[in-house]
Structures are given as C-alpha cells and as structure tokens.
C-alpha cells in the first residue's frame, strides 16, 4: 500500500474507493504525496502534496505545508496552504500560516492567522514570491 520515495516521504496510491485515510490516533512524521483524495483525522508532522482533494477532519492536525487541487479543513494546520481551486475552512478550523487559493470559503467559527491570496493567478504569484524570497535568503 505504501511505497517509500525517501526516508521522510511516503507516497500513498489511491485506493479502490479513491480516498486514503490517516485515522485518528495515528501520528506520521514525514511528507505525504497522494494521487487520490486524502483524509487526515490523525496527526501529520510533514507536508502534504495531493493532486486531488485534501480533507483535514475536525480532530486532524497538520504541522507542515499543504498543496493540492481542493481542500476542506476542519482541524488545525500550522503551515502554508496552496490550493489551486476551492479551499473550504469550516467548523473550528485553526490556521496558522499563509493561504493561497483560487476560491475561498470561510465559516465564522474559523480562526486564521496569516496572509491570504485569493483569485486567478494567486497560486502562481505565491510560488514566484517564494522563489524570490528563497533567492534573497540564499544570497
């Protein structure tokens, strides 16, 4: 089910139902790459890169960056979030980090601390800004 790309990166292939699950009580340290939908109800200390939908459940915790097509977040995220299409922040979601999304929906019970870029081209702009910042830091 899991194939190891490196010591700290796990690739999760889509199951027959199309959704991979990291259940409550599970703690994963390392990066996760998923070609299908992924749901996290446990804790991930690493980055998520998905080519489909990412769902962070109400008890889910991610300490790292999230990148994907669509996302629903109900839990806690500490890191940068880059979503190409629709990002839903629902319930008692708590976000600490910058957001970049094509479209954004936020419920009034959500807490968010960071910068937000929404709309066409916002994802490309954030990637370019990050690259410029990385070059400045490297020099």
Number of domains: 1
Mean pLDDT: 83
**Tally of DSSP helical segments:** 1
Question: How would a textbook summarize the main sheet?
Answer: 12 strands, mixed
Q: Beta-strand percentage?
A: over 45%
Structural class, please?
A: mainly beta
Radius of gyration: 15 Å
Write the layout of secondary structure elements.
Elements: E1 3-6, E2 9-12, E3 19-22, E4 27-29, E5 31-34, E6 37-40, E7 43-45, E8 48-50, E9 53-56, E10 61-63, E11 66-68, E12 70-73, E13 76-78, E14 81-89, E15 94-96, E16 99-106, E17 111-113, E18 116-118, H1 122-138
Parallel strand pairs: 2-5, 3-6, 4-7, 5-8, 6-9, 7-10, 8-11, 9-12, 10-13, 11-14, 12-14, 13-15, 14-16, 15-17, 16-18
Antiparallel strand pairs: 1-2
Tell me what the structure shows:
The chain is mainly beta and 139 residues long. It has one domain. 12% of the residues lie in helices and 52% in strands. The strands form two sheets. Strands 1, 2, 3, 5, 6, 8, 9, 11, 12, 14, 16 and 18 form a twelve-stranded mixed β-sheet that branches. It has a six-stranded parallel β-sheet with strand order 4-7-10-13-15-17, with no helix packed on it. Strand 1 and strand 2 form a beta hairpin. The longest helix has 17 residues. The N and C termini lie far apart (42 Å).
